[in-house]
Amino acid sequence: MSGRKRTLLKVIILGDSGVGKTSLMNQYVNKKFSNQYKATIGADFLTKEVQVDDRLVTMQLWDTAGQERFQSLGVAFYRGADCCVLVYDVNVNKTFDNLDNWREEFLIQASPSDPENFPFVVLGNKVDVDGGNSRVVSEKKAKAWSASKGNIPYFETSAKEDYNVDAAFQIIAKNALKNETEEEIYLPDTIDVNAQRPQKSSGCEC
Amino acid sequence: MDADIDPSSFDLVVVGTGLPESIIAGAAAQAGKTVLHLDPADNYGSHWATLQLDTFVEWAKRGGATAPLKYGSDGPDSGTNPTQAPTASACPTMESELEVVPLAASAPIFSDFALQVGDAATHLANCVLPPGVEAPKKYGVDLAGPRLALASGAVIDLLIQCGAHNYLEFKAVEGSFTWRNGQLEPVPSSRADVFKSRSLSLVEKRHLTKFFKLVTESNIERDPSDGGDSVSEEDLDMAFGALLTKHNLPPSIRQSLLYSVALLTHDQDSGPAVTAREGLRAITAYLHSVGRFGPGVGAFLYPLYGSGELPQAFCRIAAVKGALYVLRRGVRALLLDKASRRLRGVVTTTGQSLRTSKLVSGPGLLESLPKAETQAESLGTIPLELYNGTTTPSEERFIARFVCITDTPLTPGQSNILVTFPSGSLSMALPAHPVRVFQAGESAAVAPAGRFLVQVSTIGSEGRSAREDLQPVAEALFETRGDADEESGQGEEASNRALEATDEQGASRGTREAGGVGERIEQTGSDTAGNGGRPAEENGSFSSGLGAASPEPNSGPTPSPFNADVPGSGVAAEAGISGTDGQQVRTVDGANSDGAAAQTSEFRKPRLLWCVYFKQRVAAGQELAEGDIYVCGSPDESLTYGHVAEEAETAFKRLFPDLPYYPPQAPEPEEAPDEDEAAE
């Protein structure tokens, strides 16, 4: 309606602690992976410029900053998200079972205007572990769940091996952009107290 | 999940996620301290929260208390039996040297809830949202409202300094008005405003212009011995109100300056008066805020989605710096060293003992356990006051608050506005002190389209309910009886169009991308880099704005006092879409009241759909237990965040005298620091 081009997309990455949310972000944006697990400290958000069809958009990937550990993400985290990425660990059943809770939590807190069609993407991470032998959640099961929740795109990834990460985030960007054009009517004019957003492109470098 | 917190030792435990607590948590985490941040509620913000309307109603029904915590409901994880009195046995090594001190329940912070739906007073227990108030999740009610940030105020500076501004978006408050003789008069806040004003005589304009010049030139922050100070020492010590009278400012302007510009919270004609020094400082702060974030933007900013976003931004800063966050969990007891009486730890509401030597809490939160819980304690409870409080609680005072929903804006075409009632501006004696009214709508994301959320507060009078204090204000501003249907129908239409207009104006996200505020701030010093095509001097401080003849790109041939003052339209015009917006706003005026809205005398009362009155006790911040514990103050009567920022900084420096408080951020190292031992 306004014809305004909003080129900043907010993407939030949800899932249980330890499923590899920060690693996926880091692999995608910085092409880096650390084998040593640390509960997230120092991760804020990373930004990356992405070409989607003929548009160049800036994708802002928001880390949970560890606040997911005790289910203590505040509503502000969820606000205005253009896409929600749900991550689980294919080697841990419980992380898959909790996807339902994370999705519900997102829909309640972010209360998107069209919850039925809000873009989610599901990532089954850590497919590399033990050559796939320790895997407990089958691709079939995960795909069935994703399909049952309104045909959520599903990807199997390995942040460590950089497997499928780019492909997944390309879809994330594409779907976020699709959502954004539908919702842009109500984006109000805000004062920009925001000095550093453009310079943040290298993110938190950690 | 009531999983135990791991690790079990922290440099600082913070209970409650109100604004001062959150600022302190962020500062400590940024300074490298290990921080655990708890909140018994399942949302952020404590007394500073913004609640959706349905949540707010539930909260009001509970009398403003946190929802009772459920103990041990989550199976094997919960571990401890909560009905047992907490002991130090969870940490055997602590047992011998530590005394467990259960916390006593404190007097509630909130009280005196009264509900009105349409023209009928109703019991809260029967609260049903009336027709016209649908979509409760689209409302955001500030518990500490009305609360606005001064653009050049401490909290905005702090947000920028620590990077928390990245998590927030702000709306400019579009207009500020003073109530006078049943009308809303625009608050003059720049020389241009003074020129435009239709309610001032030429002589009055001259006196006011002179006064503004005096304020900007006297520069109250400078050492008075430097010279150039045109207010004498003697005058600086006199009452501010008397100084204004001395400078020939007529009573109406004097009221406006005292309460709408200097933002004083107490009646200046009875009781203790503010000195001219303080008053001038407050006016300077206001004038510096006008235009800080672009030409046409007024002094006040309001966060999109409500003021409850602020504490969350500081909490995220803390989390990013490693603080651990656990909602739905509080503290039920303290662990004190038997010999020294110093703080050694806390017992959480799940019964877990944690080591810490510093504790910060929101008001009433340490003690917020449900009554039954505290009574079950076999150990005697000790009220916190018994500890060596270094500050004695000041005399008790209350704030009367009022939240309501209307379907028409107070001023045509404006969604987010501030109205100040100077003391004595209503014919009846009450309320005794100035009253603040903040209306916000869909554009601030705190109300659905076509609805407006209005929040009102004043210092409560002794022995009176919030309703008794604020009903005169409600009746002055709103149609409280149900005979306004026809008007409000029109009003709704008008407001929708008004919102469309706002939206068109808002079409300038380009402005946002073109020039960040930070750049603008730097620019006030440098004048070099491009800034969305705006001349740099326009981004300067108030004085430069005054010096240059302020451009009025959208003043049509017959600007109404309202739309000419809409900063939004100024911004839109700057962004190159002038021509349409002024017209649209005028159309709205016409639709609303036969074109007569151009006169201030045509104030039309919006219809009151629903409202709640309540009282909030003002609790001062307190240092306890040899300074190991700091209990933050509750939201106070001020409109802005100045006191909170000050309180948080002072408390932090008392708790951690050797640590820097939000130092400027150095670029982060390439590799994550190795001090994190939370690996699992």
TrEMBL record, chain A:
Task: List, in alphabetical order, the GO biological process terms annotated in this UniProt record.
Answer: protein transport
**What topology does the record note for this protein and the membrane?**
Lipid-anchor
- Which residues, by range, are in coiled-coil regions? none
Q: What is the first-listed, main subcellular location in coarse terms?
A: membrane
Native species: Klebsormidium nitens (Green alga)
Assigned GO CC terms: endomembrane system; vacuolar membrane
**Gene Ontology molecular functions:** GTP binding; GTPase activity
Q: Tell me what this protein is called.
A: Ras-related GTP-binding protein
The similarity comment for this entry is:
Belongs to the small GTPase superfamily. Rab family.
Q: What is the lineage of its organism?
A: Eukaryota, Viridiplantae, Streptophyta, Klebsormidiophyceae, Klebsormidiales
Q: Known SUPFAM superfamilies for this protein?
A: P-loop containing nucleoside triphosphate hydrolases
TrEMBL record, chain B:
Polar residues bias located where?
A: 78-87
Report if keyword Disulfide bond is assigned. Answer: no
- What keywords are assigned to this protein? Cytoplasm, GTPase activation
| Compartment(s) of residence | Cytoplasm
A GO term from the CC aspect: Rab-protein geranylgeranyltransferase complex
Region described as Disordered: 68-89, 480-598, 657-680
One short Pfam family name for this protein? GDI
Q: Name one GO molecular function term.
A: GDP-dissociation inhibitor activity
* Biological process per Gene Ontology, one example term: small GTPase-mediated signal transduction
- Compositionally biased intervals (Acidic residues): 668-680
Which residues does UniProt call coiled coil?
A: none
Location, primary (coarse class): cytoplasm
Enumerate the PANTHER family for this protein.
Answer: CHM, RAB ESCORT PROTEIN 1 (PTHR11787:SF4), RAB GDP-DISSOCIATION INHIBITOR (PTHR11787)
Q: What family does the entry list?
A: Belongs to the Rab GDI family.
What protein am I looking at? Answer: Rab GDP dissociation inhibito
